[in-house]
Amino acid sequence: MFALADCNNFFVSCERVFRPDLEGRPVIVLSRNDGCAIARSNEAKALGIKMGEPLFRIRDLVSRENVALFSSNMTLYADFSRRVRSVLRDSAPQIEVYSIDEAFLDLRGVECEDFDAFAKELSQRCRRLTGIPLSVGVAPTKTLAKIAAELCKHYPKLRGGCFMHREEDIEKVLRKTPVEDVWGIGRRSAPKLKLLGVHTAWDFRLLNEEWVRRHMGVTGLRTWRELHGIPSIGFEHQPRNKQSICNSRSFSTEIYDRKELMEQTAKFAAMTAEKLRSEGTLCSELTVFAATNRFHGDEPQQYGNIVVHFAEPTDSTLRIVRSVREAIAELFVAGCGYKRAGVIASGIVERQASPHSMFDAQTQAQHHRLMSAVDAINRKTGCNSVVVASQGLGQVLSSSDHRSPRYTTHWGELPTAVIK
DNA sequence: TCTGGGGTCCTAGGACCC
DNA sequence: TCTGGGGTCCTAGGACCC
């Protein structure tokens, strides 16, 4: 058996831990720049607020229904995520962290008389120890466990836990599950399936295996097999190294100034380098992109991207910032208002496994010592105490007017020193 | 006025090899 | 009339996830 542990309305639930007065009230958490709703309480969902709905389109509803707004506070959510994971680790020999608010538990070989009681107890323990409501689904495959966890959210009498394994139960549930709610069947496939009369997960399960493989590829086939109770999606016991690291933002206002765009992207470059170092990896390739506002069709549109290759894989902020600045200098078009930009590191290798250059070993070692010192200072005094001068001294150009305090972690500071 | 930010994997086709 | 058969690697685009 596999379990899926899924935090209910995770970001909203984190905010409510410190604001119990918001229990029962519609609450939404907004994306960066307070642009869209990215988490909704049950009350907000009941009002018809959709995932990804832009705030400006629901302003009236928000004030009429007294919806509580929060800017996203990722530092807080990451900390709660860590707390929930620690509860899960105490309950199962193996967990696979799937996202900030979900993890699979490998229950193969676990002796358990009553998985239903196990699921319910885990949910209640999580609530008690972290304050976060958790849904736990247990089933013979990951895809079925996802569906079982979803059931918990709709049926409070399940008390947060659901064990789904008998054939007749599975059939009953799949008959009621819309095909688009199945993990692995997305926006593109669902309408096509519906045209063929496939409306529920059960309809999908009844399709011919060869047809599924031909029309939906091996990924579609995996989902089909999983719905049949045949485990076909592997369990990742070790977190794998990332294959890419992306830092990108939409700015609160368009940037027309070249220097300003360079400073903003230099910040993304620095974040990327820091992430690489924290994971003990190097990148050999960097993609830098900048784009105008795609929602303003009447204004000149620009999208530029440049790929930089490093002869020697690197995690040095100095190297990465320099490359990003050169790329921006090349792709910047005067007169365009840039609304979004970012940096993607790829070609990622482990630092330990990476061969050292015969030619600039000394420079690499110097950069490494400098970066270690900077990281140590920033860890100690709050992030961004020491930055590279070309990042500028300001913050990323964004707005978040409804941010809750960092209840459980301390604030980052503005730079107090720069590296020229 | 105002529209998020990360990721992964698969597939088809082209370029190239012997 | 008729034009091999096998392979690899890379890339772009699509589809999916939270």
Short description, anyone?
By secondary structure, the protein is α+β, with helices and mostly antiparallel strands. The protein has helices at 10-17, 42-46, 59-64, 74-89, 115-130, 142-154, 167-176, 189-195, 201-206, 209-227, 258-279, 317-331, 361-381; strands at residues 2-7, 27-30, 37-40, 68-71, 94-99, 102-106, 134-139, 161-163, 244-255, 281-292, 303-314, 338-350, 386-388, 417-419. It binds a DNA duplex (18 and 18 nucleotides) through helix 10 and strand 9.
Give an account of the 3D structure:
With 420 residues, this protein is of the alpha+beta class. Helix content is 39%, strand content 22%. It contains 13 helices and 14 strands. It has helices spanning 10-17, 42-46, 59-64, 74-89, 115-130, 142-154, 167-176, 189-195, 201-206, 209-227, 258-279, 317-331, 361-381; strands spanning 2-7, 27-30, 37-40, 68-71, 94-99, 102-106, 134-139, 161-163, 244-255, 281-292, 303-314, 338-350, 386-388, 417-419. A hairpin with a 2-residue loop joins β5 and β6 (102-106). α4 (74-89) crosses α5 (115-130). It starts with a strand and ends with a strand. It binds a DNA duplex (18 and 18 nucleotides) through residues 30-36, 38, 52-57, 59, 72, 98-102, 183-189, 217-219, 242-250, 293-295, 340, 342.
Oligomer: single chain
Radius of gyration (Å) = 24 Å
- Total number of helical segments? 13
Helicity level: 25-40%
Order of helices and strands: EHEEHHEHEEHEHEHHHHEHEEHEHEE
Largest sheet, order of strands side by side? Answer: 5-6-1-7-8
Outline: globular
